[in-house]
Amino acid sequence: MKITIKALMELAVIVHNHSGIVLKKNKAYLIENRLHPLMEEYCFSCFEDLIAGAKNSSQLTSRIVDLMTTNETSFFRDKRPFVLLKEKLLPDWQTNQGQNRSQLNIWSCACATGQEVYSIAITLMEYFKEKIFDHNIKIKASDISDSAIVKASRGRYSDYEVSRGLSTVQLHTYFTKEDPHWKIKDELRSMAYFEKTNLLHPEIASGGFDIIFCRNVAIYFSKTDRRRLFHSLSACLLL
Ligand SMILES: C[S@@+](CC[C@H](N)C(=O)[O-])C[C@H]1O[C@@H](n2cnc3c(N)ncnc32)[C@H](O)[C@@H]1O
Questions:
Q1: Measured in angstroms, how far is the CA atom of residue 198 from the centroid of ligand 1?
Q2: In order of start, what are the domains of the chain with their CATH numbers?
Q3: For ligand 1, mutation pick of 18, 80, 139, 143 (most atoms within 8 Å of CB)
Q4: What is the Cα–Cα distance from 181 to 67, expressed in whole angstroms?
Q5: Does the pTM of the predicted model rise above 0.85?
Q6: Which pLDDT tens digit goes with each residue over 155-178?
Q7: 181 in the Ramachandran plot: left (φ > 0), alpha (ψ -120 to 50) or beta?
Q8: 199 lines ligand 1 (CB under 6 A)
């Protein structure tokens, strides 16, 4: 089913208002493809009907936003941020904060299906070793996509997913095989808590985080929204 330019622009406004994601005119094919199953499920015969439905249903709007998100991720994606965590951020935290506080709060704020969260948890395990239990560690894991956050909180991954970024040693140390999946072990899973959060919602500006991972998400936003996002994230950091 083809989307008209007028419908595309209306849909772009809905998606932008609810997520900050910018849909450009050249994304017609992507929109048609991703929304096709939803159109069939609701028996909509054109995108104008979908838009009218979304205007009357926050649940349908959430489904549209969910389908328009790009949840691509992998374990230890780009490597460098995790090296930085181990070699700079955690030692700095120990020197400056950890002396007086056992609480360490980290936020993975667009965590997609959770690989970033568990890469952080593994890095913490590898850094603190047996002393990990001396610290009260909490990793907030959030995303706007309902389906991504559900998968993240389950912590179960396919052979293909674990083949992207984990060493064999890490796989066998931190996961158990539950055919056909690999499940993250409870001691890592229990460091994290999962929440649906729209990063562009004004209420995100609270909380005291030592470290925030905000990666591969601002690229989907306008310049103004990026500025707004980084401003509110900086207010969430403990200084
Ligand atoms: C490409 S993934 C990045 C995942 C991970 N941070 C990484 O770097 O591998 C982008 C994620 O941002 C999420 N996202 C998009 N807009 C968002 C918003 N307004 N609030 C929170 N999450 C959002 C998407 O649902 C998606 O899961």
A1: 10
A2: 5-68 (1.10.155), 80-236 (3.40.50.150)
A3: 143
A4: 24
A5: yes
A6: 999 999 999 999 999 999 999 999
A7: beta
A8: yes
